Amino acid sequence: MDEAAARLIATSLAIGIGGIGPGLGIGILVGKALEAIGRNPEATSTIQTNMILGMAFAEAIAIYALVVSLIVKFV
């Protein structure tokens, strides 16, 4: 196998696998937050603030995967 082909496969796997976890995490997080808001509408602002903070942390993991895949591809 050529080195360029191995780099492309590694890059694809890094971003592909690295994006699965945050995608699932954000989906579950938003679903549970909407359930909580449905049960207790008075706590919407607190739930929404915590949900956005959790989404930011999950998205940071996806950005790390993107950085790793770019490093593998170009270095």
From TrEMBL:
One GO CC annotation: proton-transporting two-sector ATPase complex, proton-transporting domain
GO molecular function: lipid binding; proton-transporting ATP synthase activity, rotational mechanism
Keywords: ATP synthesis, Cell membrane, CF(0), Hydrogen ion transport, Ion transport, Lipid-binding, Membrane, Transmembrane, Transmembrane helix, Transport
Site (Reversibly protonated during proton transport): E59
Domain V-ATPase proteolipid subunit C-like span(s) in chain numbering: 9-71
Source taxon at top rank: Bacteria
Topological category with respect to the lipid bilayer: Multi-pass membrane protein
Compartment annotation: Cell membrane
Residues in the signal sequence: none
Transmembrane segments: 6-30, 51-72
NCBIfam families linked to this entry: ATP_synt_c
Family designation: Belongs to the ATPase C chain family.
Functional description taken from the UniProt entry: F(1)F(0) ATP synthase produces ATP from ADP in the presence of a proton or sodium gradient. F-type ATPases consist of two structural domains, F(1) containing the extramembraneous catalytic core and F(0) containing the membrane proton channel, linked together by a central stalk and a peripheral stalk. During catalysis, ATP synthesis in the catalytic domain of F(1) is coupled via a rotary mechanism of the central stalk subunits to proton translocation. Key component of the F(0) channel; it plays a direct role in translocation across the membrane. A homomeric c-ring of between 10-14 subunits forms the central stalk rotor element with the F(1) delta and epsilon subunits.
Protein name: ATP synthase subunit c
